[in-house]
Amino acid sequence: MPMLLPAFAAFAQTPTPPGDRLASLTRATTEIRLPNGLQLLVVERPQSPVVAFHLRVRAGMADEPAGQTGLAQLAIGSFLQGSEVWGSRNPAAEKAAFDEAEKLLATMRAEQAKGEQIDDIKQGRLDTQARLAYQRSNEFTHGSRFFERVLMENGATGFEYRAAVDYADLAMTLPALRSELWFRMVGAWLQAPSLRYFYEDRQRFNEPRGRPGSQVRMAAFGGVFPLHPYQAVMSDGEAANVLSSDLTAFMKSHYVPANLTVAIVGDISAADARRWAEQYFAKLPATPPPTPRNAVAPKVENTSPARVAVPGQWPVAAAAWPRPDGNSPDDPVFDLLQALLTAGPGSRAHAELAGPTPVVRALSATARYPGARYAALFEVEAEPAPGRSLDEVDLGIQRVMTAMKTERPAADELTRARALWRTRLLGEARTAAGRALQLVRSQTEHGSYKIEDRLAKLDAVTPEDCRRVAEQYLSGLHFTLFQLTAVEGGEAQ
Amino acid sequence: MSIRPLPAFLFAAAGGLLLAQLAAPPAKPGGAGAAKAKAKTVVAKKAETSDAVAVSGDLSLGLRFGPPGSRGLRPLPAASFTLPNGVKVLTVENRESPMVHLFALVRAGAAAEPAGKTGLASIAARMVRTGGTAALAAPALEERLAALGVTLEATALDTRAQFVWRAPTDSFSDGAAILRDMLTAPRFDADAFDQSHEMAMSAVAERSSGPGLILSRVFREKVFGPASALSRQPGYDSLEKIAHADVVAFHRRHYRPEGTVIAIESDLSAAEMKLRIEGLFGAWKTAESEAAPATVEAPAPAPSASLSLADRAEARQSAVVIGHVGGRAADPDYGAMLLVCEMLNANLPRRVREAGGWRADWSAVWEPGFDRPGEFMVRALVEGPYTPQAIQIAKDEINRYRSGQFTDRELEVVRTGVLTRFALRLQATSDQLLERSLAEFYGVPADLPASTYTAVATATRADVAKAAAARLLPAQTIAVIGSASLFDKPLTTILARVEPIDLTIARPTSSKTQNDPESLARGKEALALMQKALGGADKLAAVQDASIRYEGTVAVNGTPTPLTVHDRWMQGDIYRQDQSLKNGVPRSFFYNGRIAWLGVPGYVDPMSPDTLAQVRGEIFRLLFRLALSDRDSKRQVAAPGGNVILVNEGDKYSVRIHVDPQTHLPQRLLSRWTLASGAVVSIEESLSNWKEFDGVQWPTHIETRRNGRKSDDVTVVEARFNSGLKAADLERKP
Question: What single DSSP character describes residue B169?
Fold first, then answer.
């Protein structure tokens, strides 16, 4: 096997970091838990007068009820519009007009449901009335995207909001002096989100965003998730059918304290953070979070590759194996396997397939596709080198995986894979926003905000663990493959 | 039963577009007071806080904050000491994370380059980083760094070379020792030199492609003068003059301990770090040679206004830069100028909206220098016709600040944003440490960031007006890339004299062949070995024709696209190449010394000079002919060392052949030619998987890099020699 590199062997021994040193990250972090279940993680970094805030909600695309694609993005994006009060000139009047429009729309939908007996004239009248009522509700606002203007006025930077597969995130950095603004904005929004400009937002979020890969990839893997929360995530849908009542219901059930994790990093004292958290978040009702959805483990029924022809596309071969969710004790092993396989020129798949006589020209592995809150996939994909066929790539991947489950990785391989993760995890904590993201990610995806816990788990993985997990999960029996091939007549870009 | 289509109603699934048009325009973010007054008339039943409704349009949400900047940057708790050899060391203890950040600043920037060898500092920095150390050859070194979790970047700037090193604390001593070895005992492999040199050559060609890069170059040449280290850029001529020995000499002279600053942030105590640093860098010996000049001469402001234009007929948009020499980071009015630029950024788009709302993107910067003045620039990307208007708007707007005609409100609107961005740029302790080490390196006050922050926070309207009046100059340098035929009025309405920008780059002379007799003799010797490896000189000389078919990919706009190629050559230099790109029209190239055409089915065109140059190069590089270059009196063959053979034919062709020291087969061919525009194309072909065809060795895998980027990757599917090709077949038009 080519992975034994003589020049490397001499340096196989790298000291393991003493636990005490890593624990300093945790010592610098204050955990605040409110009685309603809301968790806040605070790191004081008084050096520079800015504070990074990161809110993560356990409400991603996988949580969208059937047929309500786009809801997760609409929910996190509703922050921009403010709260029932903030951004409104007259909350009561605004709400009354909005509700009237909604009532007219409900009548319209009921009429439409009658099918062929639709009364066009009545529909037209309802439409005009609804439109006027909606316009009237907008007249009571301070304009669209009120909180976005608040952020601009107050010097916020790095503002991001995004719903991904498992979670929705809201992140920003504010001048330290204006930290309280974040608590006031987010507290008011969570307490009473506003539906104003719902129809414009629905239009805006109509394009599928943050979908896990291209349409082809989703189509190829979609069948692997029958009766699984990721099934809907694997296809495009339109937000056009989402109703404002759907959004209200979704936020009521998912945007609850126990489903929220907040990280705050920067020039703010833990005492201030606690005081403001109590002032602005304590009133949120301690509604229990929705029970996790049932997930039937992804199933690969057919070992023959699915071939999808895409005009003008470079061919890609992808192999995927079902893996357990992120809470599995084997989760860190998958991370190391990913690094062992494809991180850097010395990694196994690179050495074996992209060496001097290459079978592939590009190669990557994803440990958790499309997410990890539920049982998911471990995916390897590769593009054939010129003159090589997809079947050769397929065979090459199988060869590497077979070696994975028969031979334990050498000590130097494992050392390098661990070093990669350690540097990556420690490096991303450098900036305030990076550390805030890391805290919520570690907490939500690995069950502990303590990075040293994760690193200890990675360090505890033995060469035999790697072999065992490869054998148990990444074996040929569960092998699935899709291949994108260029077809005649397509336009090469 | 017929199904009637549903009317397209506003709120039906498809009706959103209509609605979007109906949407009320966003309310103006007017003063908080106005919003409050309106809101007071409203009675709300549901309020989160008693005063919330009254101020519900208040962009501070009813909160009152301290004055902007009243919470500043904290002083960095750095300890400093100087090693006996002159290395200045700064250490900061940060217990939060077991990670070490290390910066090494060396007085080995472009200002230290000998005359005519522009680009040497960058090549040297790249080689220090990637060329191995005395103890470890380059590949082993990269693996060692990966195992230690070290990331390391090296750059050469005008007056310094900068190394940024990061790793977990446990890897500190081992990983920093590698950096120490790079700085003090680099290996400088010949291969690493070739790669660094080639990358620098490729960068020259790329420099002439992006409008942004062209504008910066022209702007700096005007502002700082063409010879300044701040403006001069490596050209083919300067790079051609740089040899391996120059890098070694540059390193010996300029990578020296005195004047070097090393700064470290770690979770180790200051005392322990001091011990470790003394152990690591204490033995770095001062070089015998004289100390190097490390500073650049301060440029005088350009005496008069100028306007330069690169007229590009195809440009729909114009790229514009307007500005002049700027100031230093330690100037007391630096903070005020940051505010001026931010006001420009806030107001230029508004002025364009008022002028009719065409498209223009603006950015105004006050980029200070440490040891010399920096630059003031307003950049714009603007729809072609409005170019002159945009320039006029920028000039007017700059003038408005110069003459102090701006309001307190304008200033206050931008202050918070400037402060946040400033603080954000220095948010990590390591960011501040780098700033602090730059202060140490250039001898400016250590508390500069904190005092600048305070200056931004406290500058009054009068302060800012005074700074603007003093710093914004009437004599501006303006440079434009755009299509003059699109402009709605001539640029001469702005300035009477418009100078053309010369975009051609001095073409490279041929590779410097070492003309000494020894090198020439070695060249003959090396070539003889190569001839033998390829099948023997006689066998090569007997090749009357060759037909080779390739399959593989070529990068089309960066995307590898499958193609097949058929190359045919006959004695008398008759050459034809047929290409078939996936989904493209097949193309044929033909040349017989007199006639040259490029054809597609049913149609041929005379070959352009650029394509012809390329075809002649292909013929020149045909291996069986290249290997017999010693039999051609027009050609010169030399071997400067390092398994390299140089072949050139006057100024027209030159190829640098890297030979495998064991097999004597060529591994890489480096060649260059100049396009009509003056831009140079550099080609690097990697040859591998040798097989014998009709007694001749031929590579069956060829990977080509064009200007440093991967372009073709082909395998040979058929190679035939002396198969009896007919000239008529080669001449046949497609």
Answer: G
Contact B437, B105 (CB under 8 A): yes
Q: Are A172 and A161 in contact (CB under 8 A)?
A: no
Q: What is the pLDDT of residues A363-399, one digit of tens each?
A: 889 999 888 898 888 988 888 887 788 888 888 888 8
A 431-490 near B (Cβ less than 8 A): 431-432, 486, 488-490
Residue B176 to residue B173: CA distance in whole angstroms: 5
* Contact state of A266 with B427 under an 8 Å Cβ cutoff: yes
Mutation for B interface: A103, A118, A142, A390, most B CBs within 10 A: A142
Indicate the residue type of A243.
L
Q: Do B420 and A124 touch (CB under 8 A)?
A: no
Alpha-helix residue ranges (DSSP H) falling in B355-386: none
Q: Edge-to-edge strands of the sheet including B477-482? A: B360-367, B375-383, B317-325, B477-482, B306-311, B499-500
Q: Which residues contact A179 (CB under 8 A, 6 or more apart)?
A: A51, A264, A268, A272, A273, A276
Q: Where are the beta strands (DSSP E) in B71-142?
A: 78-82, 88-93, 99-106
Report d(CA A374, CA A389) in Å as an integer.
Answer: 34
How many angstroms away from the CA of A296 is the closest CA of chain B? 32
Residues in chain B, pLDDT under 50? 1-50, 509-514
Position B653 scores a pLDDT of 75
CA angle, B270 then B274 then B280, to 5°: 140
Query: N- to C-terminal Cα distance for chain A?
Result: 38
Residues of B in contact with A491 (CB under 8 A): 583
Going from the C-alpha of A44 to that of each of A155, A265, A275, A431, B95, the distances in angstroms are: 20, 6, 15, 12, 12
Token pair in block for residue B359: 């498209």
* A35-84: pLDDT as tens digits: 999 999 999 999 999 999 999 999 998 999 888 888 999 999 999 999 99
* Distance separating alpha carbons of residues A79 and A187, to the nearest angstrom: 11
To the nearest 10°, report the CA torsion of B209, B212, B213, B215.
110
Task: Using CB atoms, pick whichever of A92, A191, A386 lies closest to residue B45.
Answer: A92
**Chain B residues with CB inside 8 Å of A266's CB?**
427
State the pLDDT at residue B42: 36
pLDDT of residue B213: 79
How distant is the Cα of B262 from the closest Cα of chain A, in angstroms?
Answer: 19
Q: Check residue B19 and give its pLDDT.
A: 30
pLDDT at B294: 57
Q: Are B76 and A14 in contact (CB < 8 Å)?
A: no
Contact between A432 and B427 using a beta-carbon 8 Å cutoff:
yes
Three-state secondary-structure class, residue B577: strand
A341, B673 Cβ separation under 8 angstroms: no
CA B201 – CA B203 distance, rounded (Å) = 5
Angle between helices A451-460 and A411-427 (to 10 degrees): 170
Helix A91-112, helix A120-139: angle, nearest 10: 160
* pLDDT under 50: residue ranges of chain A: 1-18, 209-210, 487-493
| Contact of B152 with B126, CB cutoff 8 Å | no
Q: Is B137 exposed, middle or buried (0-12, 13-18, 19+ CB in 10 A)?
A: middle
**Measuring CA to CA, which residue among A345, A350, A382, A346 is closest to residue A363?**
A382
- My answer on whether omega of the bond before A370 falls inside 30° of 0, hence cis, is yes
Q: Which residues of B touch A275 (CB under 8 A)?
A: none
Interacting residues of B503 by C-beta distance below 8 A, sequence separation 6+: B208, B214, B310, B677, B678
Which token pair is A215? 């349409």
